[in-house]
Amino acid sequence: MVPDMNTDIWSKEIEEDLTLLIKDWLRQTGKTQSELCQHLNLPSARMQILIDLLRTDFKSGGIPKIASRLCEIESAWTNIEGQTSKKKIELKSSGQLDLLDEICDDLSKINFKN
Predict the structure, then answer these.
(1) Is the pLDDT confidence value at 96 over 60?
(2) What is the Cβ-side half-sphere exposure of residue 100, based on CA atoms within 13 angstroms?
(3) Checking CA distances to 112, which of 43, 70, 88, 95 falls within 20 to 30 Å?
(4) Are 57 and 69 in contact (CB under 8 A)?
(5) Is the whole-model pTM more than 0.85?
(6) CA–CA dist 29, 77 (Å, integer)
């Protein structure tokens, strides 16, 4: 039975569904529970600490507040990964330019007239 997540009452079913959702979401994003808890500045990576935070969100804004928080986190992770990928591309490009400079320098030392 799927619980009615539009109610204002926290239930064991909602807690269990959120736990499963978070575990699946983390698996899909390639992140760990520890990374999620660090992002939320939680003192521990235990699931119960995370659920307690989400329960607080639920009490102040229901499932939409929890969904908004998780979407913000995913967006932040995506931005960080995008910046990391860009830096890797820049590093590879500059490394290739350095290699090209070395090749040109070596070629300039060769006497091709012989």
Answers:
(1) no
(2) 6
(3) 95
(4) yes
(5) no
(6) 9
Q: Tell me the three-class secondary structure of the chain, residue by residue.
A: CCCCCCCCCCCHHHHHHHHHHHHHHHHHHCCCHHHHHHHCCCCCCCHHHHHHHHHHHHHHHHHHHHHHHHHHHHHHHHHHHHHHHHHHHHHHHHHHHHHHHHHHHHHHCCCCCC
Residue-wise pLDDT tens digits, 41-81: 999 999 999 999 999 999 999 989 998 999 899 888 888 76
- From the CB of residue 4, how many other CB atoms can be counted at a distance below 10 Å? 10
Q: What pLDDT is recorded for position 79? A: 83
**pLDDT recorded at residue 1:** 43
